[in-house]
Amino acid sequence: MNIVLRNASGVFQSPWYPHRYPYELINKCHWKIIAPKGKVVRIEFLSFRICDNYAQITDRINGLNSRIVKISVSSGTCILNESSTVHMAGEGRSFSTPGYPSHPGKGTCSWNITVSPGEFVKVTFWEMEGSSNQNYAEVYDVTNSRWKSLGTFARHSRVNEFYSIGNNVLVEFTSRYLAWPGWPGGFIASYEAVKAAPARYSCSKPTPNWWSKNVVTLHGYNGEFASFGYPLPYPNDVKCSWEIKAPLGYVIQLTFHSFHLQPDVVRLLG
């Protein structure tokens, strides 16, 4: 499958992204990027989650050596009835309970994820099967062996993305019941190393797989707000709205400390 891209900019992705790709297709995908005359090609991987594969970049015109974009390294095996821990390090990869989407059995299993110092870990849960109160994953920041809970993910959870405080997180999955062979259970998730974590005052999405369209109401004499995931790049089709209410007798002054947008619109309604 050869795809030719000729525009000044664009986006390309693996088959069925962000869901799991069909293994029989992944070795057959080739993208040929032709830049306008006088320009060079810049490729940025915004998300990179693959299993036992890699992306190869080749400059055939100038004869430069190929560059291999690899996955992270992993050691250990998830064995729930032994409370085992899998250690992962690198830029990112996907991981799941054994045999997902089949139920993995009863017990606990953990994934200890480390990225380079100065970077943060972004953990994204794509799917979770099983009863919410019997089948769930807890995420902790464990940088410098100091445990801090970042949240819990279960089926129908509102939040499916978690960002570390430092460069080390632990994902602990717990299953409290046994199931018949073939019954659904467990999860599939991914992690990636990022340069920054979203500010606590940036707007967010209310539910997984549906971008935020809710209105955030701000009260008080002062405050801060930011676009989706700021200072990280925001995805397409995001709508963020804020309603600011000042105390009686006061006017509202807005100051933009940072303003970097694509051809989008910011509307101020009074």
From TrEMBL:
Entry-linked PROSITE patterns: CUB (PS01180)
> Does Repeat show up as a keyword for this record?
yes
Tell me which residues make up the CUB domain. Answer: 1-45, 78-194, 203-270
Keyword Disulfide bond in the entry? The reply is yes
User: InterPro entries from the xrefs?
Assistant: CUB_dom, Sperma_CUB_dom_sf
What UniProt keywords are attached to this protein's entry? Disulfide bond, Repeat
Instruction: Provide the protein name.
Output: CUB domain-containing protein
